[in-house]
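Quick one - inputs below.
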Amino acid sequence: GENVEQHPSTLSVQEGDSAVIKCTYSDSASNYFPWYKQELGKRPQLIIDIRSNVGEKKDQRIAVTLNKTAKHFSLHITETQPEDSAVYFCAASRLEAAGNKLTFGGGTRVLVKP
Amino acid sequence: GAVVSQHPSRVICKSGTSVKIECRSLDFQATTMFWYRQFPKQSLMLMATSNEGSKATYEQGVEKDKFLINHASLTLSTLTVTSAHPEDSSFYICSARGLATGTGELFFGEGSRLTVL
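Output:
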């Protein structure tokens, strides 16, 4: 099955700086890579996703890059703000009609210091 | 976006009792729902995949007789923790994927925090 590794487990940054979280996956057939943000006691919220047919995707201050050959993908948050503080999870899956079972990374606790 | 509702949000029960958690897709039909468990400061671990009208598929190490899953309709899946013990205390979250394929996005319920005394 799929195995997703995520680093770092904790990340502390100064407000305004950038944050980068990296993930690797094991299943070369995985083709969908979402990133979720989870605040304490709440449900995960999708913040950005990328499919294997593109190498990069950007949405305002958030960007994700994918290297299929190396089987790793990264989340980049620029100009961080205190409200970016949360736990971030990467995930990987195969997009198929009856599946899309997500395997999550271990999570990164991000703290943005004002 | 699509809405998935989970109930109850919090439940406290005595050891040995059973607890049922409901997961509903409110504005779309979900052929497949997924049940995750999350221990404090840990990741989401998939427990089982629930398919409407058929038996659930459990992940390795998850006891199917202890975690009963029913997906009787396209908008409702239930997870019953039978004979709960303190080690079953956790945050249980369901997610659903709609009939429309291609988007890939899963929608998560609010989660249910179970505390077994």
